[in-house]
Amino acid sequence: MTEQNLPPTSDGQEATIDWSVLDTFRTFRKQGDPDPSTRLINIFLKSSPPLLDSLQTAIQAAAPESLANVAHSMKSGSLNMGATGLGELCARLEKIGRSGTIEEADALLDRIKLEYAAVEAAFRKIMPENEN
């Protein structure tokens, strides 16, 4: 697969995902072993909600350095999974935090949450039934 926008989720949000990243993970699969991309998707889906909560906390606490650090972590994880749209939004939030402010961070976090929900839905659609 190549980078594509999936059909909109129920709220109309589309996820921008570079599926070739997950395809690359699959090349490391040993015969008879589970798909490594499934394991990595599960890790991503479990680790992202606490990061989203930490972004919200940093904004509420007016802590731009914390905001930048957490946004950097979420950006890295997203890009490593091929979630390019989410990664780009997190990079913008990281830049805001690095500038020493949280101005406009709240609105951007709302967009990040929508994009994450779309990414999560897209990843869950490709997961084997017993892995969801």
Task: Provide key terms for this protein.
Four Helix Bundle (Hemerythrin (Met), subunit A), single chain, elongated, mainly alpha, 132 residues
Briefly note the structural class of the backbone.
mainly alpha
Rg of Cα set = 15 Å
Distance between the termini: 21 Å
CATH topology: Four Helix Bundle (Hemerythrin (Met), subunit A)
How would the global form be characterised? elongated
Low-confidence stretches: 1-11
The chain-level mean pLDDT equals: 88
Number of domains: 1
State the total count of DSSP E strands.
2
Q: In which range does the helix fraction lie?
A: 55-70%
Description:
This protein has a single domain, classed as Up-down Bundle (Four Helix Bundle (Hemerythrin (Met), subunit A)). The chain is built from five helices and two strands, in the order ββααααα. It has 132 residues and is mainly alpha-helical. 66% of the residues lie in helices and 3% in strands. The chain has a two-stranded antiparallel sheet with strand order 1-2.
Question: How are the SSEs ordered, and which strands pair?
Answer:
Elements lengths: L3 E2 L10 E2 L1 H8 L9 H25 L3 H17 L3 H15 L6 H22 L6
Antiparallel strand pairs: 1-2
Short description:
The protein has 132 residues and is mainly alpha-helical.
